[in-house]
Specification:
Elements: E1 38-42, E2 48-53, E3 68-70, E4 77-79, E5 84-86, E6 91-92, E7 118-119, E8 127-128, H1 129-147, E9 163-180, E10 184-203, E11 206-213, E12 216-219, E13 225-227, E14 230-240, E15 243-253, E16 259-270, E17 276-284, E18 289-314
Antiparallel strand pairs: 1-2, 3-4, 4-5, 5-6, 7-8, 9-10, 9-18, 10-11, 10-14, 11-12, 12-13, 14-15, 15-16, 16-17, 17-18
């Protein structure tokens, strides 16, 4: 039988000779139960369809995502621990206790309205199951490589890729300059203040985006708007036909005019094409020096107002 119901079984003799008695021997009806005790199919937000449960089977109330279904008063809610979830509307019926960490989302939302990608294990902030699985798989590969005596840095091509970024910057101040790749760079910035910055970076196989307007910044990997300082730069330098250099200093100034992240830098350029290489040394207030090698293409022009488009590969 394909669905629940009744089977009507009868025997009949329809031969030509109807006189006398007719006996039926060996009639046997066998009921074999399915090996499946219970089966439930779900829509993404938890509503069920095509449900099946063996007759006289034990009741199982732990269904969607392993959560207990509350059937009292015909509620049909799921107990997620911190809150109750209603799959009929795809919403929790109370505010998320961790709502202050996800201010861009409704405090009643379930899995950021994307249950294919996210899960909510306990009713307190969804988790990204895709990135979580990728991280677990990567860690398993590293563990296996370490157990086999190999270098875990060689376990994936993404770990060997350089950092690639695309950045758009708008500045104002006492400044003048022009930049066309590495063919020509002239920069004289007595006081340059960055008012807009939009940077997308591909690093370790992950794409990150940070947008900054004045002292406000928004990151694609974090929730909410953060307050940070504006970047102030003093720089002087020149490069012609791919050879030259520059010196300067950079710091962040917050809304209270306090300075942070101060660093001085020197850059030397060596190139035979517009897509060249720059070696820079940066020194912070503690005297720590960092050396970077960058390759890329930049296009910019500034006189009081400056606009720069920069494509970079950093190792």
């Amino acid at each position: 039988m394909e669905k629940a119901g009744f089977a009507y079984i009868y025997v009949s003799y329809e031969g030509l000779q109807t006189r006398g008695r007719v006996f039926f021997d060996g009639l046997e009806v066998v009921h074999r139960e399915s090996a499946v005790v219970q089966g439930d199919d779900y829509y993404p937000f938890g509503m069920t369809f095509n449900s099946y449960k063996r007759a006289m089977g034990r009741e199982n109330r732990f269904l969607y995502n392993g959560k207990e279904k509350i059937e009292e008063l015909d509620l049909g809610w799921y107990d997620y621990g911190a809150r109750m979830y209603d799959p009929a509307i795809g919403r929790f019926n109370s505010v998320d206790p961790a709502a202050n960490l996800m201010r861009r989302h409704s405090p009643y939302n379930y899995a950021f309205d994307n249950p294919i990608r996210f899960i909510d294990p306990d009713g307190m902030m969804p988790e990204d199951e895709i990135n979580k699985n990728q991280s677990e798989v990567k860690q398993e590969v590293i563990n296996e490589a370490q157990a086999g005596g190999t270098d875990p840095k060689d376990t994936g091509i993404l770990d060997r890729l350089p950092e690639i970024s695309l950045e758009i910057s708008v500045t104002v101040g006492v400044q003048a300059g022009v930049e066309i790749g590495k063919a020509l760079e002239v920069d004289l910035s007595v006081l340059s203040v960055e008012v807009l910055n939009d940077k997308s970076t591909l690093k370790d196989g992950k794409l990150e985006s940070v947008k900054k307007i004045g002292t406000k910044s928004v990151s694609g990997s974090e929730d909410g708007v953060k307050t940070s300082g504006v970047k102030v730069t003093n720089e002087a330098g020149i490069s012609i036909a791919g050879f030259g250099g520059s010196v300067g200093q950079e710091q962040n100034i917050d809304g209270n005019l306090r300075s942070s992240d101060y660093r001085s830098f020197t850059k030397t350029t060596s190139s035979t094409s517009s897509f060249g290489s720059t070696v820079s040394q940066e020194t912070d207030l503690s005297g720590n020096t960092t050396t970077k090698q960058e390759s890329g293409f930049s296009l910019g022009l500034k006189f009081i107002l400056g606009v720069e488009l920069k494509f970079q590969i950093t190792q």
